[in-house]
Description:
Elements: H1 5-12, E1 16-21, H2 30-49, E2 53-58, H3 61-73, H4 85-107, E3 114-119, H5 127-142, E4 146-151, H6 158-161, H7 166-176, E5 180-185, E6 190-192, E7 195-197, E8 199-200, H8 205-210, H9 222-232, E9 238-243, H10 249-255, E10 261-263, H11 275-282
Parallel strand pairs: 1-2, 1-5, 2-4, 3-4, 5-9, 8-10
Antiparallel strand pairs: 6-7, 9-10
Amino acid sequence: MKTRKEFLNSIQKAKLIVIKIGSARVSGEESKINDFLYDLVGDIRSLRDQGKEVILVSSGAIAQGKKLLVDQIGSASLPNGKTSLAEKQAFAAMGQNKLLNLYESFFSRVNIPIAQILFGRKDLNEENSFTNLKQTFRQLLGWGILPIVNENDSVSTEEINLGDNDILSAIVASIVGADLLLILTGVDGFLNGKEKIDLFTEITKETEALATGPSGPGTGGMFTKINAAKLLLPYGIKTGIVNGEKKHAISQFFETENFGTLVANHSLPHRVPNASEIQSHFFSFQTE
């Protein structure tokens, strides 16, 4: 039976890494957000100094937009009950610029220029669009610019329906042929009761049945995170699920053999899926 220790060397050799940030990491108390971002930019600066390329997939536009509206009109004026699709899209339209400005204010401190990429399913419908998107990622990385990706939430419902960008991050990892997807969440990894599972070499129905739904401001939860890993597994792309509330969680994953949960299988060779494979394979997943 494989152990995590056998994968540590290949993790450390990963050249292209996609990091997914959930809504909870960039919403809530300002001091907590600042502490997280301070660690994040330091860890990404360290990865880049090692010659690695990084892409960030970030949720949080909806949460940021809602906070903006509360600041302007007060929480008592917000509609009661479940937030409608139109309201979520309006929050996203308000919050996306604020979210990017927040990242800019931190990444500029470590001399990492950033760029925003917003896309949705329609951008992968045609081979030309897929190729253009892939080339845009490649050009930005070649220039030393950090792409920050989000769903185009103000005109699309996919981020809302596909688990707080968990599935979107898997799609990005597949488009660019990443070596590793690292998902930052609020728990120590995949938990079976109180026991953390260090390694999965396959994702079974039994595994999925143990995964839970969202518990914070996002729409994902462990169910969509483990399914994002499952979608990448056939292409030999590793997925790490780690506690983003821990200090320097990204660095810890690369340095500590049992930090978080790893989904990987050495018997599945690394390859990059084409546009039609992504359309049929990745977009077939839907949350409940």
